[in-house]
Structures are given as structure tokens and as C-alpha cells.
């Protein structure tokens, strides 16, 4: 697997991911049964080369069990109002407890999501209920994407943005 | 057992908030996709729209296991469905129902150029998980729907005529469901068209206006014999009812002159069409619409389907009862003599189109019926008629024994009331009616 010095995620899509948009995370078990949950927060660092997604342990038991067992991860970042969408995948993840230092990120993420979701007509209190979580329940799932795909709906969805694993 | 069932979470399947789907490739790589539609098939199955040959498609063919994450649009509660892919349907009722709904979703989200249904992927729901969270309180359940169906059912059971049955259904829709715009159309199997026999809430009644089988939401519901529900305005021409068939085809002359404008909303944002069936045959379509988005949900669909079933059975019973009556006896007393300016009626033989002066009145089977009645009235002084003799009269060319003669008479009676009140048809009993002609009539045949 080659390591890219600069992941070729276009800057506008990278900016969208970093701003705090909708994130859905998936993995699978040994029987290849998919597991999935919405992330309660995200952090995109180093031009997309390092990504952290925060998930509720209570909501994501199977998902966390699967990645802990060494299964790969997929995460989709999408902007509800435009349908712009990027999917990243990684074969390995590191899971840690969310810490007080993560709190500003989560607050910023929630504020961004309230705006994003309001743009498609849903009130902020719905977003707050959707993303309601408590720090002690959150797991921070960190990974370095090996593949990225433009997933904006349409015939070109799934087009690789960068090479990595086959 | 208190396990969560699919009907419990139908609100999550309205497409208000897009759902997500996770699949897994044969090599073990997971994948997440957005779903524009999670379509309720029955208590144990959903259908997902197959629109592109993408990663999800490849995965599902290699590994039929999938998960779907749903969000309740009012409470923000999450639900996870664990699914198994069964098959893909590319035609038929399920496919057409989804296709129509997707057209609405696509127009609403500005994706009309992108979203196109290639297939309806049917999945078995193996397990439903209520994901823990801090959801908002659930809205009050909508009450009174079952009571409204009951009232409608009671009214229909008392109906002795198609007129009464149509009124019972429209009044239930208006008074119990708050529906502002509704119509009932009957199917003419010979012409492969539907014609409006009753409506409420429109600027013009549109009685007699026609819809081709397969045209618009109404025509698709009829052709596929399945409910079609659109929760957002669609710009897709297929589902735009207002585009008129013969004008589209550039027809002129008599066809254009006999077009009664379709009464429906020019820009409906919610539409629901439900087929009316009896003994497996299509009798017509019950249709409601609204200028608001997301006006009709699954419960409205349930209610309309229940009402349509009752209406179909009532239509059939009224029809059979009407046909059983022997030819009518002579009129009890003499009719008052017609007076005033004579009415000039012309019939164009080819289409049985009847005009009063220069104004189009009626055509087809109902036109032929009117002409027979007026001829017998003029020639033999007859006023009283029976359904049975109409059915036996070769000049009327009733397509076959199953043709809904009662509906033709309702159409004729209502068109006369709107366009030519000097001629009336009054029901005098089961399968019997009387022709009232208040002005002298001059009949001219144009072949």
C-alpha cells in the first residue's frame, strides 16, 4: 500500500469535510455483516490524511466491536444541501475514549451541523436531538484513509479520488 | 413479544431525511451509500431504489447482507434495519409506485437529471434495532382515521346508488380527512381511458374529463393497479396530470372540441392515487392532491385503500342490482309539455359526440345513451327507461356486460346538470330513471 504525501481530495471537498458535515461510519463482522452508525462528531486533520470520528458506544456496539477485531472502516462525509459527498476507507483504526480536549471539536461540529441541516429545512432542535451525546459515552475512532471516493450521487459516484489499497 | 415491527417506524420511510446503507464487498471492504428511497413493501420487506451500477450494487450481488440507518423525522430517533437482498424488480406495481415517488423526490431535491429508477431492490427485513439515544417526544398520534373509515363504511353500506356512494366517499375525504381536492375517475376498458365522474374542491368540476391509462399519477395507479403516492411536486412529465393527451398528440377537430379540461391543480405538491377494484377488475381511481409538500402519508394511503375497496364493492353491487330490473313500465302520468326556445342538439355519429348548440355536451357511450333517450322521447313520447334496456340496445354499443352502466349514467346526469339543465335524468328506482325535457328539442344527426 503506497502512502500518499498529499491526498488528492479536491480542496473544496476537503474544506467541506473539515467544516463539520454529516458523517456515517460503517464496518463489518467476520461474516461480512455490515455494522453502521452516524458519527456524533468528526475532525479532519493534515489535509485529510488523519481523520477522527466520534461515535456513541451505546449506539455503536457492533461497529466498535468490528473495528476492534481488525475489520476495515468506511466513512462518508456529506453536505445535505448540495449532496456533495466523499467516502474514505481505511484498513486499520485506533480507538480511544473521547477526552475533555475533544470537547471544543464536538461543540464546533454540532454548531456546524445545526446550520447544515437547517439549510435543508430541519430545525436546530432536531439536529441537537440527533447528535445528543455525552463525552464519557463517546469513542474516538482514528484512522488514516487509504482510499477516497467522490460519492456525489450520479453515474460518477464511486470514482476514486486517490489510490491506495486495491 | 414486544419487538419493534416495520409498520411501527413507517414515518422513517417517508424520505424526509435520506437514509444510509452499509454493504460489504466480497473482500471484506465496507461501503456506505445514501438512499433516496426506502420503500415500505409489507410488514417484512422494504425495497430500495437501484439507480446506478455502483459499489453498493456490486456488493449486494456478491454479499446480500445490508444494514440501513433510518432517522425518525420528528423525534430524531435512530433505527437500524438488518436486511437481506432478495431480488430486483424492473416492472410492475412495486417498480411503478417507487418510480413515481422517486420522480417527486428527485424534483424536490433538484436531482431530476440524476435520479432514475433502474430497479426496485427487494430486501427481507431480518431485524430492526431501536438505537438508544435522546429522542424528542413523539408527536401525538393522528386520531380519528379508523373512525372516519368506519363512518364512510357505514354510509357506503346504506347507499342504493352510485351517486350516493360517490358523495359518501368525497364527503368523508373532505370532512374527516380535511382533503381539499379530490376526484373519482371511472375506467373505460374499451377506450383504455379514465373519465371523471365526481370531484370536490376544484374551480370546475371537470366531470367527463379524461385521463389515458398510464398517464400521470392517476393513469399509472390505474395501469399498475397499485397506489401511487408522491410527497413532493414533480416536474417529471410522466406524472404531470395536467398535460392533455390529445393536445400532446396534436389532435385537432372533433377530438379537441370534445376535450373537457382536467380540473386538477396545476402544481400539486402532494398526490395520492388509489385504484378502485372489485373482483380483481379495475373500476376506477380515487385521487386526492394538495398544494402542500408531504401532505399524504402512509396512513392516508391506508385509509384511501380501505375506502377504495368499499367503494369498489358498492359500485359492483349497485350495478348488479340496477341491471336486474326489467324494462320500465309506462310513465305514471303525462309529462308537462316542453316550452320555450327549442334546443338544437347535434350528434356526430362516429364518436357519438353530442353538442347543444355549439357547446360540447357528451360523447361515447354516454352520448349514445342520451341520443337513444331523446329519440325515443321524441318518437314514442317515452320518459321512463331502465338500465336493462340500455344494456340490450345495440345502438348504444356498450362495450361488454361488465361495463359500468351506472357510472355512464352518473356522468351523463352530471354533465346535463352542468351544461344543459333543461334536460334532466332523474333516478326513479333501482335500475330505472326518467327523462325530463323542459324545452322542445331538435335532433340533428351528422355522420
3D architecture notes:
The complex is a heterodimer of chains A (166) and B (447). Chain A has helices spanning 11-19, 61-68, 103-118, 124-130, and strands at residues 22-28, 34-38, 41-45, 50-56, 73-78, 85-90, 94-97, 138-143, 147-150, 159-162. In chain A, strand 1 (22-28) and strand 2 form a beta hairpin. Chain A contains 4 helices and 10 strands. Residues 1-6 of chain A have low confidence and may be disordered. The N and C termini of chain A lie close together (8 Å). By secondary structure, chain A is of the alpha+beta class. In chain A, helix 3 (103-118) crosses helix 4 (124-130). Chain A has one domain: Electron Transport, Fmn-binding Protein, Chain A (Pnp Oxidase, Chain A). The longest helix of chain B is centred in the C-terminal third of the chain and has 26 residues, at 298-323. Chain B is α+β, with helices and mostly antiparallel strands and 447 residues long. The relative contact order of chain B is 0.10. Chain B has 3 domains: 6-131, Electron Transport, Fmn-binding Protein, Chain A (Pnp Oxidase, Chain A); 145-323, 2-Layer Sandwich (Beta-Lactamase); 343-446, Arc Repressor Mutant, subunit A (Orthogonal Bundle). In chain B, strand 5 and strand 6 form a beta hairpin. Mean pLDDT of chain B is 88; it is low at 243-251. Chain A binds chain B through residues 24-28, 31-38, 56, 58-59, 71-76, 78, 80, 83, 85, 87, 89, 122, 125-127, 129-130, 132, 149, 151, 153-155, 157-158, and chain B through 17-18, 20, 22-24, 26, 28-34, 36, 51-52, 54-55, 63, 65-67, 69, 71, 73-76, 78, 80, 82, 109, 111, 114-115, 131-136.
Amino acid at each position: 500500500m503506497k502512502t500518499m504525501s498529499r491526498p488528492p481530495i479536491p480542496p473544496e471537498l476537503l474544506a467541506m469535510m473539515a467544516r463539520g458535515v454529516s458523517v456515517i461510519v460503517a464496518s463489518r463482522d467476520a461474516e461480512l455483516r455490515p455494522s453502521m452508525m452516524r458519527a456524533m462528531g468528526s475532525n479532519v486533520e493534515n489535509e485529510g490524511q488523519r481523520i477522527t470520528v466520534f461515535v456513541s458506544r451505546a449506539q455503536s456496539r457492533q461497529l466498535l466491536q468490528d473495528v476492534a477485531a481488525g475489520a476495515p472502516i468506511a466513512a462518508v462525509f456529506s453536505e445535505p444541501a448540495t449532496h456533495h459527498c466523499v467516502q474514505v476507507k481505511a484498513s486499520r483504526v485506533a480507538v480511544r475514549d473521547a477526552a475533555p480536549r475533544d470537547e471544543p471539536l464536538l461543540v464546533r461540529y454540532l454548531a456546524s451541523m445545526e446550520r447544515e441541516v437547517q439549510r435543508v429545512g430541519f430545525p436546530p432542535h432536531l439536529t441537537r436531538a440527533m447528535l445528543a451525546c455525552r463525552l464519557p459515552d463517546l469513542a474516538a475512532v482514528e484512522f488514516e484513509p487509504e482510499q477516497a471516493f467522490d460519492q456525489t450521487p450520479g453515474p460518477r459516484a464511486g470514482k476514486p479520488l486517490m489510490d491506495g489499497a486495491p | 413479544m414486544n419487538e419493534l415491527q416495520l409498520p411501527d417506524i413507517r414515518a422513517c420511510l417517508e424520505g424526509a431525511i435520506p437514509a444510509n446503507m452499509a454493504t460489504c464487498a466480497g473482500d471484506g471492504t465496507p461501503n456506505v451509500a445514501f438512499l433516496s428511497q426506502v420503500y415500505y413493501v409489507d410488514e417484512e420487506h422494504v425495497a430500495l431504489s437501484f439507480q446506478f451500477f455502483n459499489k453498493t450494487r456490486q456488493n449486494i450481488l456478491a454479499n446480500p447482507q445490508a444494514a440501513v440507518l433510518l432517522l425518525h423525522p420528528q423525534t430524531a430517533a435512530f433505527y437500524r434495519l438488518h436486511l437481506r437482498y432478495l431480488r430486483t424488480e424492473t416492472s410492475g406495481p412495486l417498480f411503478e409506485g417507487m418510480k413515481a415517488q422517486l420522480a417527486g423526490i428527485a424534483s424536490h431535491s433538484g436531482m431530476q437529471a440524476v435520479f432514475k429508477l433502474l430497479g426496485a431492490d427487494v430486501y427481507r427485513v431480518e431485524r430492526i434495532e431501536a438505537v438508544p439515544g435522546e429522542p424528542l417526544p413523539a408527536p401525538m398520534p393522528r386520531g380519528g382515521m379508523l373512525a372516519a373509515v368506519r363512518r364512510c363504511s357505514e354510509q357506503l353500506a346504506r347507499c342504493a346508488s352510485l351517486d350516493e356512494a360517490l358523495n359518501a366517499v368525497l364527503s368523508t375525504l373532505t370532512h374527516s380527512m380535511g382533503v381539499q381536492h379530490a376526484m373519482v375517475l371511472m375506467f373505460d376498458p374499451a377506450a383504455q381511458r379514465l373519465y371523471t365522474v365526481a370531484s370536490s374542491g376544484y374551480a370546475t368540476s371537470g366531470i367527463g374529463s379524461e385521463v389515458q391509462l398510464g398517464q400521470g399519477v392517476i393513469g399509472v395507479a390505474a395501469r399498475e393497479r397499485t397506489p401511487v403516492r408522491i410527497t413532493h411536486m414533480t416536474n417529471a412529465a410522466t406524472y404531470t396530470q395536467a398535460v392533455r393527451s390529445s393536445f400532446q398528440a396534436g389532435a385537432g377537430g372533433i377530438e379537441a372540441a370534445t376535450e373537457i379540461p382536467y380540473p386538477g391543480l396545476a402544481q400539486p405538491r402532494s398526490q395520492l392515487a388509489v385504484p378502485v377494484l372489485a373482483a380483481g377488475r379495475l373500476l376506477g381511481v380515487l385521487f386526492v392532491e394538495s398544494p402542500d409538500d408531504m401532505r399524504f402519508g402512509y396512513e392516508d394511503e391506508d385509509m384511501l385503500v380501505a375506502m377504495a375497496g368499499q367503494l369498489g364493492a358498492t359500485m359492483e353491487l349497485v350495478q348488479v342490482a340496477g341491471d336486474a330490473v326489467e324494462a320500465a313500465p309506462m310513465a305514471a302520468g303525462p309529462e308537462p309539455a316542453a316550452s320555450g326556445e327549442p334546443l338544437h342538439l347535434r350528434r356526430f355519429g362516429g364518436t357519438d359526440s353530442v353538442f347543444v348548440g355549439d357547446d360540447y355536451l357528451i360523447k361515447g357511450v354516454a352520448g349514445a345513451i342520451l341520443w337513444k333517450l331523446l329519440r325515443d322521447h321524441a318518437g314514442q313520447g317515452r320518459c321512463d327507461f331502465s338500465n336493462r334496456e340500455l344494456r340490450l340496445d345495440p345502438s348504444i354499443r356498450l362495450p361488454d356486460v361488465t361495463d359500468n352502466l351506472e357510472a355512464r349514467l352518473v356522468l351523463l346526469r352530471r354533465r346535463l346538470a352542468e351544461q344543459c339543465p333543461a334536460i334532466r335524468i332523474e333516478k326513479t328506482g333501482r335500475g330505472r330513471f326518467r327523462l325530463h325535457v323542459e324545452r322542445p328539442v331538435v335532433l340533428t344527426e351528422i355522420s
